[in-house]
Amino acid sequence: MILCADIGGTKTLLGVAEQGKLIADRRYTNADFPDFPALLSAFFADTHTRPANLADGCLALAGPIADSGTSARLTNLPWIIDAADLARRFGMPPPRLVNDFAAAAVGAVAAPASRLITLQAGEHIPDAPRLVVGAGTGLGMAMVLPDHGGWRCIAGEGGHVAFAPADEQQAALWAFLRQRHGRVTWERVVSGPGLAAIHEFISGDTLMPEQITDLAQTEVDGDAAKALAIFLATYGAFAGDMALACLARGGVFLAGGIAGKLLDRLPDSGFLVAFNAKAEHAAIAARMPVHVATDPLLGLHGAMMLARKSY
After folding, report:
1. Chain centre to alpha carbon of residue 24
2. Alpha helices in the chain (DSSP H)
3. What are phi and psi of 179, to 5 degrees?
4. To the nearest whole percent, how much of the chain has pLDDT over 70?
5. Per-residue pLDDT for 310 more than 60?
6. Are residues 141 and 41 in the same domain?
7. Three-state DSSP class for 17?
8. Same domain, 302 and 181
9. Same-domain pairing of 93 and 118
10. Which of 84, 88, 264, 76 lies closest to 159 in space, CA to CA?
11. Pick from 47, 40, 23: which is nearest to 91 by CA?
12. Under a CB-based contact definition with an 8 Å cutoff, are residues 185 and 161 in contact?
């Protein structure tokens, strides 16, 4: 039995796998728990899992892993996860810790075609690098590179690269965010909190991201729809820039909760226009396949594969 987890800033998915298949999984809201050990204890109790029966584990989490590979601090939650501490507390093997988008990347590479929705067919090169990006509570990215018949996953922190405005309105948004945060990163714009910030910039009103997307559906010319249009254009620009940086001719995969919720909006939005707006390299961007990974357990399946080293 293998423990696998996808730990984000807002929610956590936990699962137990056996022989390559999930036999139990649960979703938890992080705010309901003081720390990760408390959440993990609840999972073991809810699923009647005996930690001593676990043979291995992999925890994918939204934050950088320490150089030792044995501890990590979540970027958008004041939690520190220590593999040795978990092993001592629960009497189980110390789990492997990986960046959440490393797990999402592996899950996307292995996802069947039925779990992908294609936004841009492009010209797929099987042995070329692939890129996974995803907006949620934060903004993550990871690359998957061909490696002797398999794949090597490289996590990155592209969401913390400086935001590059594409027009005067986005430049004004940058100035608005700079007053609040100092350095303005892509994550300040392309994320759930980023969507809320864009809406506040346009309207002066503070709303939750879910409220904004709901209003955008009913008020097509309202401030929420305008905010969502800026959000999707900047999302496309970011994804295209990261794809160009690693020449992701093997495909670009959108993960994270926001892409799934906006599937009906993405094809006719400014996402692909901004993705492909790469001046002298626009033709290269247009040849990159772009897919939305729709597996709701993508990170969990990726963590399971990383624990089993079957990728």
Report:
1. 22
2. 36-47, 83-90, 100-110, 168-181, 192-203, 209-218, 223-246, 257-261, 271-276, 282-286, 298-308
3. -60, -30
4. 99
5. no
6. no
7. strand
8. no
9. no
10. 76
11. 40
12. yes
In the block, tokens 């936990």 appear at 14
Mean local confidence (pLDDT), 8-32: 93
For residue 90, count other CB atoms closer than 10 A to its CB.
19
Tokens of 297: 């357990």
| 193 φ, ψ (degrees, to nearest 5) | -60, -30
Torsion angle defined by CA atoms of residues 216, 220, 226 and 228, in that order, rounded to the nearest 10 degrees? 30
Residue-range definition of the domain harbouring residue 99: 2-103+297-308
**How far is the first Cα of the chain from the last one, in angstroms, to the nearest whole number?**
18
**Length of the chain as a residue count:** 311
Bridge partners (DSSP) of residue 291 are 118, 253
Rounded Cα gap, residues 191 and 163, in angstroms: 12
Residue identified by tokens 């994918």 is: 60
What is the predicted pLDDT for the residue at 311? Answer: 47
Q: Is 53 within 8 Å of 47 (Cβ atoms)?
A: no
Domain count of the fold of the chain: 2
pTM for the model stands at 0.85
Rounded average pLDDT over 59-63: 89
Q: Is the pLDDT of residue 150 over 80?
A: no
Instruction: Report angle CA 270, 271, 275 to the nearest 5 degrees.
Output: 115
Segment 214-255, tens digit of pLDDT: 999 888 889 999 999 999 999 999 999 999 999 999 999 998
